[in-house]
Design a protein that fits this description.
This protein has two domains: about 100 residues, Immunoglobulin-like, CATH 2.60.40; about 100 residues, no CATH class. Helix content is about 15%, strand content about 25%. The protein is built from four helices and eleven strands; from the N terminus they run βββββββββββαααα. The strands form three sheets. A five-stranded mixed sheet has the order 1-4-11-10-7, with no helix packed on it. Strands 2-3-6 form a three-stranded antiparallel sheet, with no helix packed on it.
């Protein structure tokens, strides 16, 4: 299974004489499969027993640094992203008093060179997530810009045909996927009436690139 994520929900608090104590969950993580992701949660410790419902959420205020970025990446919001099989460490640092630090151990495994990407299983949900097949976008009665999708992806076969085999416009390039109109428009590399829908450095973008590289099955 290429998208399974297993994490050991172990958390170790950092205690300092001055400044807040904090806990990272999980303290050890395992990412399995291409494009696997895991969100870290950082909580301030208000007592010796761990975080409570009154604890401050520090997830978006601490700073994350991957000490092995070729193995695992991390977003400013604390989302881990698998990049290469191996082991890595992640530094989590607070902004208080020079920064208290905790290290998170990460294991990445199961990544393959040519992951299997299905339209129904992976591509369709990405289109729904970013609103591409909503009634106000390409699932409108007559579509948008000559491109029409089914409402919320109820007809994946027709949607795939509209993307890959539409005769009137070349929306995809299987030779150079990143240059596909299908990807350049939502990332605003070219003008798009629907605005910015997809980040070019996101996991969802990489899944779509991998789908095109595999022949857009």
């Amino acid at each position: 299974m290429w998208f399974l994520i297993f994490s050991f929900l172990l958390a170790a608090p950092v205690v300092a004489a001055d400044g807040p104590r904090f806990q990272v969950t999980p303290a050890k993580a395992s990412l399995v499969g291409n494009f696997s992701r895991l969100q870290l949660v950082v909580s301030e410790l208000t007592n010796g027993n761990g975080p409570t419902d009154r604890s401050n959420d520090l997830t978006r205020t601490v700073r994350y640094t991957s000490l092995n970025p070729e193995v695992v990446g991390v977003t400013p919001a604390g989302e881990l992203q698998a990049r290469h099989n191996g082991t890595a460490r992640l530094e989590v640092r607070t902004a208080v008093d020079g920064g208290q630090v905790q290290l998170v151990e990460v294991t990445v495994s199961g990544l393959v060179d040519n992951p299997a990407i299905g339209f129904r299983e992976q591509v369709g949900p990405i289109l729904s997530k970013h609103g591409c097949n909503s009634g106000s976008c390409h699932a409108a009665q007559y579509g948008k810009g000559g491109f029409k999708l089914s409402v919320f992806g109820f007809d994946p076969g027709r949607d795939r045909t509209a993307i890959v085999r539409e005769r009137h416009q070349r929306r995809v390039s299987l030779v150079s996927p990143r240059d596909s109109l299908f990807l350049r428009k939502p990332t605003m590399k070219v003008p798009h009436g629907g605005g910015h829908r997809l980040d070019g450095d996101s996991i969802d973008h990489e899944i779509l690139v991998a789908w095109l590289l595999s022949g857009a099955p």
